[in-house]
Predict the 3D structure of the following.
Amino acid sequence: MAGVAVVTVALIGVEKYFTGPSTPVFDYSGEPNSDQFVHDNLLATLYQEMGHAMIDQLELPLLGQEEDAADVASVFLIDALYEEEAAIEITYAAADMFLALAKETGEPYWASTHGPDLQRYYNLACLFAGADMDARAHIGEDLGVPEDRMSWCEAEFDAAKASWGAAFEGLAKNAPAQSIAYDGGTETLTEKLIMEEIGSLNEDFAFPNKLTVAVEECGEPNAFYNPDEVRVVMCTENAEWLRYLPLPE
Ligand SMILES: [Zn+2]
């Protein structure tokens, strides 16, 4: 198919072939990344998918690309739900992931539903810093957000808050609840993390319909939200992919 890269990905030593614009070419010969890096990026991904689930379940109006809105939700949720130190750590891990992806994929796949990786990187850094400029301006600077963009970050976060805030408040109103069900094992890093995270999300949010978050094999390192089943799928392959994604120096 024209425009869609066919890439070879060696997963757990087995050669598999994926077609997909956002699946980078990489190998497993490098140093493995830390548990922390894998863990933090799984969280950032979970919250991106939760953004999709919220958009669907709350029938939120979309005035732009859904993936952009879900990226914003991920930053907003991590800012809201995590202590400062953990939130900073997750942000740096996700930023590293976008940088690594940008490096691996080279020319962006312009027809993607997602923004280009480097733009997602800067959006993340800007929004996170913008949530608390007094405390986090240095983080935006450290991540290389240029001055002209930095001047917008606080307003960008305020706009995100004005847009997403009411949705989160609505979801929090009837919490705690048991509206999110976990469907998966209890052994691996991904399984334990997602299971635990669902436990604490049930303390914070009550969805109008039952939402399932599953950890399962997909045949590709990815994550999805399926609106027909009201189900988030976190692919087991994602952890492997994150483990061996070559990070920029
Ligand atoms: Zn998404």
The first helix runs from residue 35 to 57. The CA atoms of residues 176 and 200 lie 9 Å apart. The radius of gyration is 18 Å. Residues 6-244 form one domain.
